[in-house]
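quick one
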Amino acid sequence: MTCETSIRTTCPRDCYDSCGIRVVMKGRGIDRVTGDPEHSGNRGSLCGKCTLAYNGVWRDPSVRLKVPLRRTGRKGEGAFEKISWDEALDIVAGRLNSLIDDGRAVDILTAHYTGTCSVIANQFPMRFFNYIGATEVEPDSICNLSGHIGLGYVMGESAKGFDPRTAKDASCLIVWGANPSASGPHVDKHWLAEFPGTLIVIDPIRTPTAARADIHLRPFPGTDAALAFGLLHALKQIRRLDSAFIESHTVGFEELEPLINEWSPARAAAATGVSEPEIRTAAEAYGAGPSMLWLGQALCRAPTGGNAFRTAALLPALTGNIGKPGTGLNFLNGKGPTRGMDMGYLGRADLRSNDAVSISHMDLRAHLEAAPHDKALLLWNINVAASNPDQRKLLNALQSEDLFTVVADLFMTDSARYADIVLPAASFLEFDDIVGSYFHLSVGPQSKALEPVGEALPNQEIFRRLAAKMGLQEPALFEEDRAIIEHMLEPFGITFEELKVRGTVYPETEPVVLWENLDFPTPSGRIELASTEAEGDGHPRLPEPEPLARPLPNQLRLLTPASEWHMNSSYDNEPRIRERTDPATITLHPDDAAARGLMEGDEAQVSNENATLTLTVRVSDMTPPGVGWAPKGRWPGAAGEGLNINALNPGLRSDMGNSTAVHGVEVTVRASAC
Ligand SMILES: Nc1nc2c(c(=O)[nH]1)N[C@H]1C(S)=C(S)[C@@H](COP(=O)(O)OP(=O)(O)OC[C@H]3O[C@@H](n4cnc5c(=O)[nH]c(N)nc54)[C@H](O)[C@@H]3O)O[C@H]1N2
Ligand SMILES: Nc1nc2c(c(=O)[nH]1)N[C@H]1C(S)=C(S)[C@@H](COP(=O)(O)OP(=O)(O)OC[C@H]3O[C@@H](n4cnc5c(=O)[nH]c(N)nc54)[C@H](O)[C@@H]3O)O[C@H]1N2
Ligand code: SF4
Ligand SMILES: [Mo]
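structure w/ MGD:
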């Protein structure tokens, strides 16, 4: 009989939950990957998608990339031959060295994001790219950069939120533009379900999270700032603005106040579609306090997303809901700002000898099309062919024979099909690392449970070997994982061996009150309601209430947020997930469906000037009139058109940081011809 043993590890996906995982071993192999019953966040379960993927394609050698590959056919065709690591790295090193020798290091582009969020595999390769002086495609520009910038103007810091454990002290929580029922299912199932006070969800869609709320406000997408001003007006009327806090800890109230006065709840109701009584009820609940505010990542993915963040942050700032138990706001909890981890050590920006250059994901396609055409593009932890806007043109740009593309991934993704060289990456079950949650203030081990499949290597090892092939001498490029892990754990006084035994730990055992000292790293040292810094960057001095224009009649705003069954585009190649998610759908309000003669199950043509997709219609009032809902995450190559929902996004930019405004996309929907 073979005895079962188990290994504790942590899920490193880009997810609010950061679940504790128990890998049950039988002999030397994995029997099953399950949730860690002792983890306070997930309490023994994993989400459906990870349960299927980690016990499916992620461990299936017949699906994983196992050896380096060299392209033999046309780009995009998917024809490759096996080569050795030596050959593959020789080819890549040769191309990169020749660009560097010609003084063209900036024509080496690195695009990466959160395929894995374990700290070394997520950041260490940037040592290599910093050292050689490559151009970085700004990672957050595909996700939430506008939110970071907008919130930064107000608070001076965007990656320091509330400690979810202080929820026990709160009487009200607003979840604004987040849908944890999909994006953080255990936060939703446990933390939110157990929230002791009034839960307000602000989301145009009646998500499962919104359906459970005490109050669900449904502003039309892009009208959040008007709603925030209406709430502030109502709070002022019921004398819930905290004059003493405003006086001591903020600047600019006298400039802001006239705008608040102008935006009565009635005016905000007309602009947003949320009724005046709903605005007043929500203001009363939030104003009673202590109150918390969760700013979801979708809130900043609108053309006015940076402004929406600035405006929403006025709620805690003007009601004094900050720096006390049960208060505060949370966008993301950065591991550096909230746990003292030395994140800069991983990527070592100081190794650069040239000025850092970066471009936005919104400009990637145009940048590839522009001369010189013989650039090098290295993609790791990312699947641009599925996730980026301007999909048709991007795929076209990736087809250029002049471009030299290298993709490191676990799977033959659509992006990998366009690569000249494909490198097999090891999964989180196959190497040690550290995972820090971006919601909870916890840190967990990523523990190696088995040898990498085939010849796959962790990201960090791929770039160590490439640096060696290129003849680079800088010792930092070769630092071993164990030394890095020790360095990263220094603030916690715990060894990696201890962390693996204990599983997820909270460096601070008691709930932390973030911003307790009320010292804000803004230019004034106070919360900036009016911002000279924003003005200097070309933005309005004050947050603006004006809503985004509604779509033209006959058009719908398209929302494409997180799906319950996908992790961005990861997992679309898991057959049991496909079964649950096929066909690709768009959900329409009954009135919008009826106006187009569409019924449940019909095929519709969803189009704009960029593309036309065929999607199956779902009819439900979970979607408000004027909005279509079609979650992200499908592989373009899996659809008949070879495109996914991102073919409909021309690369819309938000108001700040040249960052994505994917939720500003507009489409027409009509019945497919019989
Ligand atoms: N329409 C629409 N588009 C969106 C969004 C939206 O809301 N709507 N959201 C945007 C957002 S928020 C984001 S963050 C981006 C995300 O977009 P991406 O960063 O492209 O995320 P994924 O599609 O999950 O691709 C990550 C890839 O990393 C691979 N991977 C996993 N682990 C490893 C590893 O250890 N090493 C390597 N080398 N690879 C690994 C996975 O197999 C996967 O192919 O998409 C954006 N695109
Ligand atoms: N299952 C799963 N989990 C994920 C991901 C995934 O793809 N799948 N992706 C991960 C990543 S990269 C990220 S960034 C996070 C994102 O996770 P969240 O922060 O939850 O953000 P989204 O899922 O993009 O959207 C959340 C909600 O915002 C609403 N929304 C859209 N536009 C607006 C608006 O203008 N105003 C308001 N008030 N609401 C709006 C949408 O209807 C949606 O229900 O999730 C992470 N977790
Ligand atoms: S993706 Fe999120 S919910 Fe699923 S196992 Fe990982 S951390 Fe948990
Ligand atoms: Mo994201």
